[in-house]
Amino acid sequence: MDAKALWQRYQNWLYFHEGLGLYLDVSRMRFDDAFVESLQPKFDKAFADMAQLEKGAIANPDENRMVGHYWLRNPDLAPTPELTQEIVQTLEQIEAFAEKVQTGAIHPPRANRFTDVISIGIGGSALGPEFVAEALAPDFPPLKIHFIDNSDPAGIDRTLNHLRNNLASTLVLVISKSGGTPEPRNGMIEVKKAYAGHNLDFAQYAVAITSPDSNLDKVAKSESWLARFPMYDWVGGRTSEMSAVGLVPAALQGIDIRAMLDGAKEMDDATRVPDVKNNPAALLALSWYFSGNGRGEKDMVVLPYKDSLLLFSRYLQQLVMESLGKEKDLDGNIVHQGIAVYGNKGSTDQHAYVQQLREGVPNFFATLIEVLEDRKGPSPEIDPGVTAGDYLSGFLQGTRQALYENQRDSITVTIPQVNARTVGALIALYERAVGLYGILVNINAYHQPGVEAGKKAAAAILDLQSRVLAVLQKETTALSVEQIAEKAGAADQVEAIYKILRHLHTNQRGIVLQGNLGQPSSLKVSAS
């Protein structure tokens, strides 16, 4: 396509939202009008289905749940007055709590104010808050946030060691819908023990964000924790940033949560428009469908050209991949749907993997995130008439052009600056795009059977470990791995048992392995 035709295509397909100052450019996705027209019936259904979802239709039949994260930023849309009131009251309680913590009205026993906060969560209870903290936290926040988002003992130690001198002024958020999810439960128990080791009463530092009457809620209530905030069963983890899950940690850091909600609400309004060309989420869904032939045949590479948006690709990994990665469609057919997401940041990526993007395997489409404002205040010149921000803008445009020249598709999302409103809008934009795309490809974007399968498999390993230890505690002579498997009634799980024993031995957990560690069948195993 010549330059004049390309300029016209850019103008024809450029979306601009005046209220948010947000641009969406899909002109470098090489679909044609006939392709758009062919998808119109699917989009008509998607717009209708999304409207029903927002009215309270059961969107997750596996758990008989509504999907109502849209109500969080527009409570009047909630299907009952009781839900509307609950959303409004929770937001007011979050703001009041954050203000009392920041002013010292709520403070720890040994200090005038809290200085830090540990947020313990996993998946959507961590990725959203982490992204928002990186994007929006001020340089000198009223409380500095730290995350425990894994069951890695060394990682937990590192976080606690960094806070060693401030533990007596550190608030703890425990975020878990059920209270039984292993990772946040493990983190809570370890942090609780650390506080006890410093003669600190954990309850006077702890806040629960959980479902009402969950195991965690009952513990927090019985131990008189500082506060409890609700998680709703109609908000999935990957869409929970606008709930107490994301708003409590954001408010404690001094982030304007009302502005984030307002930005999301404004984007929600824009993405309800039942017209593909004038709906930015529909344009994204259209582009994803085109690039991957409606089967996820190409990966989504997310390249934010702003340091503060570095974690956006990690956040989108869960939102997109957990929502769309499904074995079966709604009719029960095996379809193996999904879109893989990965990313770095510009212009780091230009010196990392843009070489492959331009000249290697063409198994992706790129999403470039552009921020128009370079910094607060003027920039010094690097060269005559050129600033560092000019270079960054040039790198973005150059990457986009280089990709297009070699038949590599790209989308560009442009925001005026990184602030609470624009971050809220970005989150809402991709939430809606995922919902629309899921309907286009006829899958349920709001359940996650694969995640549950992984949890069950992990629980089975821990049960097997208990059986193995019970066998060894009864034995007076060393056994082979195969003998242990037989006695544990798990002859078909020898490999798993070997790995359990290797892990326990390495961590000096009462297991002795003798023999060649590289030849599992040669080992003799005993309890120390």
From TrEMBL:
Localization = Cytoplasm
Q: Which Pfam families match?
A: PGI
According to UniProt, the name of this protein is Glucose-6-phosphate isomerase
Q: Name one GO molecular function term.
A: carbohydrate derivative binding
Q: Which InterPro entries does the annotation name?
A: G6P_Isomerase, Phosphoglucose_isomerase_CS, SIS_dom_sf, SIS_PGI_1, SIS_PGI_2
On whether Cytoplasm is a keyword of this UniProt record, the answer is: yes
Q: Which family does it belong to?
A: Belongs to the GPI family.
Q: Catalysed reaction(s)?
A: alpha-D-glucose 6-phosphate = beta-D-fructose 6-phosphate
The role this protein plays is: Catalyzes the reversible isomerization of glucose-6-phosphate to fructose-6-phosphate.
- State the pathway, as annotated in the record: Carbohydrate biosynthesis; gluconeogenesis; Carbohydrate degradation; glycolysis; D-glyceraldehyde 3-phosphate and glycerone phosphate from D-glucose: step 2/4
Protein EC: 5.3.1.9
Kindly list the biological process annotations in GO that this record carries. gluconeogenesis; glucose 6-phosphate metabolic process; glycolytic process
Species this chain originates from: Dendronalium phyllosphericum CENA369
Active site residues per record: 322, 351, 455
- Does the keyword field hold Isomerase? yes
Indicate where this protein is primarily found.
Answer: cytoplasm
Q: Name one GO cellular component term.
A: cytosol
Keywords from the named record: Cytoplasm, Gluconeogenesis, Glycolysis, Isomerase
